[in-house]
Amino acid sequence: MFSTIFLTAQLLRLCLRFSVLCGLLALQNFHEGARIVMTELMEFAGNLARQAGKVLADKLTKQNRVYYKGSIDLVTEADKMSEELILAQISRRYPEHGILSEESAAKNEQAIIRWIIDPLDGTTNYAHGFPFFCVSIALEKEGTVVLGVIYDPTRDDLFTATCAGGAYLNGQKLKVSSESDLSHSLLATGFPYDIRVSADNNLDFFNAMAVRVQAIRRAGAAALDLAYLAASRFDGFWELKLKPWDTAAGCLMVTEAGGLISDLAGGKWNLDSPVLVASNGLIHDQMINVLHNKD
């Protein structure tokens, strides 16, 4: 009887070990499968951004119709051509995915996976031939941005990031700057399209910050500003009245490069937050303090 109990216990231990081993193998296979899927998505998004960027680059030197959505808010023929290319390929490859794009109505709004697109960030620059613009593509899953691509066709700079996978520029890993003194920092910002009619136009924040930092750049493409912050070309960034397509890819790049993002109060930021403060993390509290005490 004792030997029977002993053998039964041994068998149970073997079964338990086998079950744990199977679970570990299944988990390993799951993570490997997820890695492969993310690699495929990144390859798709990167190629798509390059194709759209080529459309923009080719159109830049040719006749390009400009349409006004407001007194200074405009859209070009190139915006629409870039967007049509991006939306068509996403819809063909991933018809079940949702899409949020600057120039079109949202698609499949109940989908748990959503692409967030700016087919041309820096439209005013582009319309004037000023070479600071980009294509921005992000992938969001259940409220979390898991992939981001920003492509600057004038410099052939491809910025990429994946959640918990780091941020890269043309394959080279990115890290935010190590500047810890706001007075030695180079910042970036922008102004909203309603600057002529709204008092909430960032001029007060700009004036307060300008005398406390080394310099501020207003280049006119928020997504590229954020990519530059991830690449340590800027030390900090803030802006008002932003949209998800302005920030989705860029914010992932900043955090994956070791930076920090928040709302104006220093609290948690999300895609629907209209105000963004981003930095290398070391000057973040200093930025928030200036913005809070602008008067």
Tell me what you see in this structure.
By secondary structure, the chain is an alpha+beta fold. It folds into two domains: 40-173, Fructose-1,6-Bisphosphatase, subunit A, domain 1 (Fructose-1,6-Bisphosphatase, Chain A, domain 1, 2-Layer Sandwich), CATH 3.30.540.10; 182-292, D-Maltodextrin-Binding Protein, domain 2 (3-Layer(aba) Sandwich), CATH 3.40.190.80. It contains seven helices and 14 strands. It has helices at 2-60, 77-93, 123-127, 203-210, 222-230, 244-256, 284-292, and strands spanning 66-68, 74-76, 98-101, 113-121, 134-141, 144-152, 157-162, 166-169, 172-173, 186-189, 215-217, 236-239, 260-262, 276-279. Strands 3-4-5-6-7-8-9 form a seven-stranded mixed beta sheet, sandwiched between helices. Helix 1 packs antiparallel against helix 2 and helix 5 runs parallel beside helix 6. It starts with a helix and ends with a helix. Mean pLDDT is 88; it is low at 20-32.
Q: How many domains? A: 2
| Low-pLDDT segments | 20-32
Total count of helical runs of at least 4 residues: 7
Named CATH topology of the largest domain: Fructose-1,6-Bisphosphatase, Chain A, domain 1
* Overall 3D shape: globular
- C-alpha termini separation: 87 Å
CATH class of the largest domain: Alpha Beta
Could you state the CATH homologous superfamily of the largest domain? Fructose-1,6-Bisphosphatase, subunit A, domain 1
The helix/strand series, from N terminus to C terminus, equals HEEHEEHEEEEEEHEHEHEEH
